[in-house]
Amino acid sequence: MAQHIDVWNNCLRIIEQIIDPHAFTTWFKPVKPVSIHESTLTVEVPSDFFRDYLEEQFLDVIKKTLKRVIGASAKLVYTVRPVRQSQNMTFPASNSLTPVNNPVYVNTYHPSGNPGPFVYPGLQKITINPRLNPVYCFGNLVQGECNKLGVAAGFNICGAPGKTAFNPLFIFGGPGLGKTHIAQAIGNEIKEKFPELVVLYVTGSEFKTQYMEAVNVKNKLTDFLGFYQKIDVLIMDDIQDLVGHGSQAAFFTIFNHLHQNGKQLIFTSDRAPVDLQNFELRLLSRFKWGLSVELTRPDFDTRLAMLRTRCFREGVSISDNVLEYLAGRVKTNFRELEGSLISLIAHATLSHQESTVELAERITEKIVGEEQNEVTIDKIQHAVCEYFNLSREEMLSKSRKRQIVQARQIAMYLSRNLISGCSLSTIGSEIGGKDHATVLHSCNTVSDLMSTDKSFRQYVTDIEKTLVPTV
């Protein structure tokens, strides 16, 4: 008997002992094993609805059974039987169930007043929604040079949350580079390995709103702090939005309590800790206690791999030349690249036509047009070199000639001021391989010279006008 048939029959024998006999006959007998490769079993189901129902009702049973028969790395892939002459569709099984936390007890105070010295606060049993999206898992994450450090740190944390040197983990980078995906993937993986831990995902603006609501109700601030101190893994997305003295003071208290008690903290931001504005110094120093990881723009190979992975998830087949065209045209971030692919699939489906390079050209025209008008570090370097009649090699050299040093400093200054969310470390790495401290010093030097030297200010203004004509 073929291996895949033997494996599936072993799974069926286990499942038959667990679920209702009628459900087993209806939903598992029609499933046919197709193949097995390494730890991935492919099965054929009668329809897309059939696949959805299996996922919704029996995912937990299927996952546990596959791990028991195949091993911890077991994966399941569905193929849906084609209707008439339609192409067979292939889908991966869901990577995880929607995570849930076990109930916890939190102290609560009655709003009528503070309890006396001999009155104990009430204990309320609550279930904290982790607010994790199961789609944001490591199984759906494409790894490349742009994010490999963040992924590696994430896997390390999942093995021992709160017990590694990566606490807190601070992930930063521009929009659409996968910060939320990695942060939530860590949360989902921790819930998979340590279901007893209480995990919570919240954004900086949501935390601030919760704090403001708490301070407006008597004794609710105590409840608010008590709630957050019950968290084992706190993931705060877009922490740059956590502005305001009161909310930062409350968060400082929570941070200290969680960190001192060995709880895991994970933050994401559109900029590095050193670039955060209007943050208390004591918080900024704590962000640097663990590991700060920058996500950068994906290279061509990573973009292409992401497109292929998303096609697999959507159960569609698109030729390599179309995917390579998309990967070569949309370079900014994963979000825009994924949006282009979904638009292509939608247009092809609704118009009943094949996904071709010509269709991809029409769909990406607007996105690429916007991208071409975008100010980048490369464009700034080109503009500065052209203005001062320097070669790029001269500007990026270690020369200490005054004109070359000033050109380099102006390029850094313009990069920081014209490119949204561009970190100092990114600027430094692309302009001469400098560290963030050197970039910050250069920006301050240019700013000082512009306020005291009219000729120098004119240099900077002239270059800026070539990059942003409306200036």
Please specify the SSE layout and strand pairing:
Blueprint: H1 3-16, H2 21-27, E1 32-37, E2 40-45, H3 48-69, E3 75-80, E4 89-92, E5 104-108, E6 122-126, H4 148-159, E7 169-172, H5 179-193, E8 199-203, H6 204-215, H7 220-228, E9 233-237, H8 245-260, E10 264-269, H9 281-287, E11 291-294, H10 300-314, H11 320-329, H12 334-350, H13 357-372, H14 377-388, H15 392-396, H16 402-418, H17 424-430, H18 436-452, H19 454-467
Parallel strand pairs: 2-3, 7-10, 7-11, 8-9, 9-10
Antiparallel strand pairs: 1-2, 3-4, 5-6
Helix pairs in contact: 1-3, 4-5, 6-7, 6-8, 10-11, 10-12, 11-13, 12-13, 14-16, 14-19, 16-18, 17-18, 18-19
Let me know the largest β-sheet: 5 strands, parallel
How many helical elements? 19
| Global geometry | globular
Query: Structural class, judged by helices and strands?
Result: alpha/beta
Q: Please give the alpha-carbon distance between the first and last residues.
A: 74 Å
How much of the residues is beta strand, in percent? 5-15%
Poorly predicted segments = 110-121
Q: Largest beta sheet: what is the strand line-up?
A: 8-9-10-7-11
